[in-house]
């Protein structure tokens, strides 16, 4: 297999989960690790990992930055993350910080499929997962230039040449786009994780 080019990962981990007691959602535990920890593990081979959000616990080799203005939404958060990525890194994974079942295999699959401006995951309902994709760094910088805080990320990425990937989810496994917005979703994810994480490990 052809070796893939180096990449950076920008993980958006801001906001508080009002329906989950106001706790920082990426720091909630699923399967013995935080959801943010699961995402960072899935991109452990990245040349640089950047987490965008309020002060929170991250590994020592992960860069933590804050969007301006704080709480301005995914567009300024992504811009802040990209500002920490060197111009020499041509490819960047853009990920939500609350994907407890994200795997290195899916990230690698997206990198392999990067042909145009970007490639992202489409879920089983046909919805684009805008925070589960891999992009050309330079293209994203141009798309984000001049974008206003609170602008919809969909409108910023809409004009780009995007390839869509529909991963096959094996029976009994959680979909990689699974997030946890409500107590019921969090409980379901924890129950799934208790049966074993997608890579066959536990904890």
UniProtKB/TrEMBL annotation:
Domain MobA-like NTP transferase: 9-158
Any one Gene Ontology molecular-function term assigned to this protein's record: nucleotidyltransferase activity
Recorded coiled-coil stretches: none
Key words, A-Z: Transferase
Pfam families in the cross-refs: NTP_transf_3
Keyword Transferase: yes
Full protein name: Molybdopterin-guanine dinucleotide biosynthesis protein A
Organism encoding this protein: Modestobacter roseus
């Amino acid at each position: 297999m052809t070796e893939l080019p180096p990449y950076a990962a920008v993980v958006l981990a801001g906001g508080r989960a009002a329906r989950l007691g106001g706790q920082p959602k990426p720091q909630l535990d699923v399967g013995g690790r935080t959801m943010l920890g699961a995402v960072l593990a899935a991109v452990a081979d990245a040349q640089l990992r950047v987490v965008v959000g309020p002060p929170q616990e991250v590994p020592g080799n992960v860069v933590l930055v804050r969007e301006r203005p704080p709480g301005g939404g995914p567009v300024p958060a992504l811009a802040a993350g990209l500002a920490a990525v060197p111009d020499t890194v041509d490819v960047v994974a853009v990920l939500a910080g609350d994907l407890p079942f994200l795997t290195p295999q899916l990230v690698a699959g997206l990198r392999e499929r990067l042909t145009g401006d970007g490639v992202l995951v489409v879920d089983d309902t046909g919805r684009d997962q805008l925070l589960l994709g891999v992009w050309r760094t330079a293209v994203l910088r141009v798309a984000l230039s001049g974008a206003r805080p609170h602008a919809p990320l969909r409108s910023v990425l809409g004009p780009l040449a995007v390839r869509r990937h529909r991963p096959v989810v094996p029976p009994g496994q959680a979909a990689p786009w699974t997030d946890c917005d409500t107590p019921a979703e969090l409980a379901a994810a924890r129950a799934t994780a208790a049966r074993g994480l997608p890579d066959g490990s536990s904890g």
